Amino acid sequence: MKSLVKIIALATCLVFVFGVSQAFSAGAKKAAAHKAAYDVYQKKCLSCHDSVADPEKYGKTRDGWHLIINVMHKYGTDLTDAEADMIIDLLYDLRKGMEREAG
Asked: How many domains does the chain have?
């Protein structure tokens, strides 16, 4: 019976450690994606825009950011679809929780 309790305790610990490592891995991947997106943002957007931070404006939904990024094409932004998606994700994630509606 004691060995069964030890096996259960070990299995519980392994599940916990695996869950923590998966969460850390997901966080590291998200941070790397944000870094890559910010690099694109610096290269393609900061020549006209000072910053992604504007505390006076409410956040936007993901769809709202999508519309804004697409409007920027009219101003000569040469973003690929992949780069646009990266920037949309970055801007939405940075301002998440401030949006007017879920998006």
From this structure: 1
